[in-house]
Request: fold
Amino acid sequence: MVKWENKIAKIALPTPFAVGDVNVYVVKGDALTLIDTGVKTKESKEVLAYKLGELGLKIGDIEQIILTHHHPDHAGGLDFFDRGVPVYGHKNNQRWLELSDEFIHMHNQFFLEYGGKCGLTEELKDKLIRTREEKRFLSNRKLAGFLAEGDELPGLPGWKAIETLGHAQSHLSFYRESDGVLIGGDHLIAKVSPNPIMEPPLLPNGERPKPLLQHNESLRKLLHLPISKVYSGHGEEVEEVKELIHFRLTRQHDRAMHVKKMLEEKPLTVFEVCKQLFPKIYSKEVDLTMWETVGQLDYLEDLGEIQSETQSGLTLFSIA
Ligand SMILES: [Zn+2]
Reply:
């Protein structure tokens, strides 16, 4: 049974993805707000309607939507809502919500070229280009307004946006200063570490993002806030916030050191490291395993432990 807890009601919605259910949150304020929407499937919409009903609400009662990030399990269900319902989020959501031909072209070009540098086979490069497949889970929508670091949330006095980039280039968390509650999307999840998913550069011909480095920085940022509880995008709430952050950062460092050992043997491409790290699943989960690998290499390079050199379109990593 869905219930209110300090003006927040958590609703778990089914997704067709391996991650399982996604949590969306109804928040009471000047405007009745939904944080994230769930995925765009019939089943998800039915469960949303049913669970809102347990609060005495209907889908049509939601007055505004605020997004933690653009991924289909969080933003896909925007189509369930009337066009007049304003949607707010980080400006970097927009390119994914619009999914213009120009962006798809740029996206595919980037992944073909970058996949080549990483040493991927043609077949696996194709697999990386998943935008079109995901399209059926996305909704086409324009944001009514952009939220940036420190902004007060529209219709929710006392709530602030905190930029928590890493898992997505559009990722925000929402913090209520009065009681230290954070709605954290996929930034901090009790059971799993979110994947540092690669995205095309934000500016034409710009540098690619370094999602794991961003994610670590966004985790450290939370250490400075008195957070009482994190309502996550998946699974249970997190109350031992600092402990979990330290645990995640240490685990990730250890994993990077394991990768460094591989490079002590001989220089390797991203794909070669990926195959050693994930021998059983790399071909099935090429994107997630590759981005995890890129993350560890970015981390080691940032520490000055390794270096990279690109020759004839192929990048090799070696001990510095
Ligand atoms: Zn996500």
